[in-house]
Amino acid sequence: MISATKLKSVDFYRKIPRDLTEASLSGAGLSIVAALCMMFLFGMELSNYLAVSTSTSVIVDKSSDGDYLRIDFNISFPALSCEFASVDVSDVLGTNRLNITKTVRKFSIDSNLRPTGAEFHSGTVANAVKHDDEVDEESVEGSFSLTAHNFDKYVHQFPITAVNFYAPWCSWCQRLKPSWEKAAKIMKERYDPEIDGRILLAKVDCTQEGDLCRRNHIQGYPSIRIFRKGSDVRSEHGHHEHESYYGDRDTESLVKFMENLVTSLPTESQKLALEDKSNAAENAKRPAPTAGGCRIEGYVRVKKVPGNLIISARSDAHSFDASQMNMSHVINNLSFGKKVTPRAMSDVQLLIPYIGSSHDRLNGRSFTNTRDLGANVTIEHYIQIVKTEVMNRKGYKLIEEYEYTAHSSVAHSVDIPVAKFHLELSPMQVLITENQKSFSHFVTNVCAIIGGVFTVAGILDSILHTTIRIMKKVELGKNV
Prior knowledge:
alpha+beta, about 30% strand, 21 strands
């Protein structure tokens, strides 16, 4: 059995009897300083242990949302009509989706970006608009020409006024002209405007009456508008309430449609009965846009490859005057990927202040086509997108967001001007990870602080004590 004497022999901390030790004023002061240093360094180490530290790395993109990226947008075009506004998507793999409507909403706005009504519904449009096969070059003109001087007079005189807004250079207008004139002649014979007075078929040359066409928000040719007496009231925003015709453009279809309009006039009950029996006629007409601008909002999903998001005027049965198209716009919102709630973003920014500074870089910015740029101006945005993930110390994903840089420019286009967003997605992603701190490392540092300060203070005390003793001996030697 091991005796107590043998155990005492391995004692690292042998004690010196108190009566053999000597206290000094310098030692007391040095002890106080050492204690204060220990407390200060302990506080610094504790603060460092409790603080959040992160490490940033760049790795190959391993997104949880698969091969597709969601793009949310809300863009206002003060000079693009909702009637023809189209959202298109294309990429380098050959994907080409035109006029996306399922996830896109349109709202008519005025030049000051104020909404002028409910959501604008484009409705269903036939794949191909039917025209007359035979063109009679010697057809008699049956429609009445309207100008800015007599337009309001005739529109308010007849219960129904059907107006063809056209441009002579437009190929679609040239195809419509014979059918429109024939239909106008037939309706004139059946419902003489001077005798019957229920309907008038007219036309407006937009190359001669530009102000009149702009007042009625005509951007595509031909545009057939149906004005009803008493309902075409100009509101405080300066827009009209009327309908647009999108049906077939052959003589038979036009005459049939006009007949339905006339027969719907007598009573409201007859009108409702007619609507139930003639769905085709109702599908051919829809409310015309109430203003010349459009706010387009919604989202699209695109492949994670270089591509384009394009917003432009598009129609398979209308022509556009490129010199009159103005693609000025205000980006209310443009973001990528899953939406991050403001609360989640603010919580992460407490840990990482710089995160989220570039996920909405274009929000609130306006891009205007000024007159000094001329006509046919396309506004392009070059956007480079990088994904960022933030992981906590337990491996849980805090947020997943896409940040981007954007460079914008204007270019003169040969074709119809557009607003184009060039998208470049990085194959890499930024991974920000919260570092795990070891408690044992913290304890080791605390022990090192205490032991280090104690040792250094002991060395200083020994040096100081020895120096004082030597100085005292020197003084005694001098006195002797």
